[in-house]
TrEMBL record:
It is a multi-pass membrane protein. It is found in: Cell membrane. It comes from the Bacteria. The chain crosses the membrane at residues 31-50, 56-80, 92-113, 119-144, 156-178, 190-211, 244-268, 280-302, 309-329, 335-354, 375-399, 405-423. This is MHS family MFS transporter. Signal peptide: none annotated. Keywords: Cell membrane, Membrane, Transmembrane, Transmembrane helix, Transport. GO terms for cellular component: plasma membrane. PANTHER family: SHIKIMATE TRANSPORTER. Its main location: membrane. PROSITE patterns: MFS, SUGAR_TRANSPORT_1. InterPro entries: MFS (IPR011701), MFS_dom (IPR020846), MFS_trans_sf (IPR036259), Sugar_transporter_CS (IPR005829). It holds the Pfam family MFS_1.
Amino acid sequence: MTTATGVSGAAERSTTAHVVWASALGTAIEWYDFLIYGTAAALVFNKLFFPSFDPFVGTLAAFSTYAVGFVARPIGGAIIGHYGDRLGRKKMLVATMIAMGLGTFLIGCLPTYSQIGVWAPIFLVMLRFIQGIGLGGEWSGAVVMVVEHAGNRRGFYGSLVQIGFPVGVAASTGIFGLMTKLPEAEFLSWGWRVPFLISILLVGVGFIVRLKLAETPHFKEVVERKEVLAQPVLEVLRRDWRSFLLAIGITVSEVGLAYLLTVFTVVYATTKLGLPRQVILDAVVCAAVVEFATLPLAGWLSDIFGRKALYLAGGVFSVALAFPLFWFLDTREPALITLALVVTMTLTHAMLFGPKAAFMPELFRTQVRYSGASLGANVAAALSGGFSPLIAAALLAWAGSYWPVSLYIVGLSVITLIATLMAPETARDSLRS
């Protein structure tokens, strides 16, 4: 196939399969880097960086630093999206890999509160901010790179990039599960650092793979036509504001569910229910592994039935399962807890997250696609993702029960359902240029 630039797909030396593989691998590494912080916040940061607090207050403080990464994500999305629409998708994907890897590795090197006092949580917040900046441009750049190479199977190929999330969940939770088998003193001394330190090796692999990617044909066409915009972020806010607001609404439920199911459930099970850490960590890993299959299935179905059909189904299931999820957790039975997380992740998060990789970029034209997808996804992440574990933990402390957390899930889901109904169907249209 020859693009408008006159450059054949073969000459680009980057087939769709290679682009998908490189993007998915890099995204998995970036999600691993970002998500190990959440697990550490739930299990260890309250003890090592906020030890003067009551244990539950320490957990809230740790989750507050966790939320800092999400506050940084729109900033990173705006900065990296701006240059992604001006300089190209590939350059920014390499830059995000460096930012995330450096921030994560340095967290593993941090002295604790007992060693340097208040500077420990201050440095922790600073490095979490750097992580957020990196992830702010990572996901959107990866999916834009794939979608602009994928032709008419954007839903399926885009959803393969989404597998990076469950890979990151399974890897980050799994390695923490292994570390928690250490004696408590050793785990708190050095075991918790291992997941952060080994990320530098993973980032090195992802960096090399991404250097070999070719720029997308759509961006090359914009460059050849001399239609690169000077201020793509401002253009999104001026001319594409409706797509921007729809992108936020479409995303708030999915991103909130992602962190409630993988982070807050760990806190709920270990503090409220008194379960061993390994029980809930194993359940989260199982749910993430199942998503390896359900995410691409959801993306494939969205190519057939449309993005909106999958989003509406996922939103309805999110409302329906908001209370049963906690009914099953409260049984304290490992098998039922695992079943609850597997079913909930499959019918809610997977059905929303799978088609999202195509749906979000499709809302925007090529000149502002990176910026629009970055801003929409990351503003939603800041609003509901980073603060969801903190809000849920505060609601649990206030009510002494899960019911307000379930209502919170219902509220997020209703917003997504309304935004989906207002959004255009994009599955069968060509990418906007």
